[in-house]
Design brief:
single chain, mainly alpha
C-alpha cells in the first residue's frame, strides 16, 4: 500500500507542472485535484508506515511511533526550507520538480525494502 500511495503522491506533484500551460480555471481544478491526490498519498503512506511500526516490538511501539512522527516532522520542516530556497531560485516548476523528486526518492527507498 505504501508504494501505491507514494506513486499517487509523485504523480500528483508532477501533474502540477501542467499549470504552466493551462488556462486559469483548469489550473485551479488541477491544483485542487493534485492537493487531494498528494494529501491522500502522504496520509496513506503514513498509515502504512505506522502499521509497520506497530508490527514490531509491542513494548516499544510508542517510542518507535514517536521516532517515526519526529522523523516525518524533521523531513517536512527541511522540505519547507528547501522548497523556499528552490522557489527563490527556480520558481514554481522548481518546487514541483523538488516535490516530485522527493516523492520518487521515497518510492526508491520503499522499493528497496522487503514488504515496503
Amino acid at each position: 500500500m505504501a508504494r501505491i500511495a507514494t506513486i499517487i503522491a509523485a504523480v500528483s506533484f508532477a501533474s502540477l507542472a501542467l499549470t504552466e500551460v493551462l488556462p486559469a480555471p483548469a489550473q485551479l481544478a488541477l491544483l485542487v485535484a493534485s492537493a487531494i491526490g498528494f494529501d491522500f498519498g502522504v496520509q496513506a503512506s503514513l498509515v502504512a508506515s505506522q502499521t509497520q511500526v506497530y508490527g514490531l516490538e509491542p513494548a516499544a511501539r510508542s517510542r518507535l511511533n514517536a521516532l517515526l512522527v519526529a522523523g516525518m516532522f524533521i523531513g517536512m520542516a527541511a522540505g519547507a526550507g528547501l522548497g523556499s530556497l528552490v522557489w527563490a531560485h527556480a520558481g514554481w516548476l522548481g518546487v514541483v520538480g523538488l516535490a516530485t523528486a522527493t516523492a520518487l526518492g521515497a518510492l526508491g527507498v520503499r522499493m528497496g525494502r522487503v514488504g515496503g
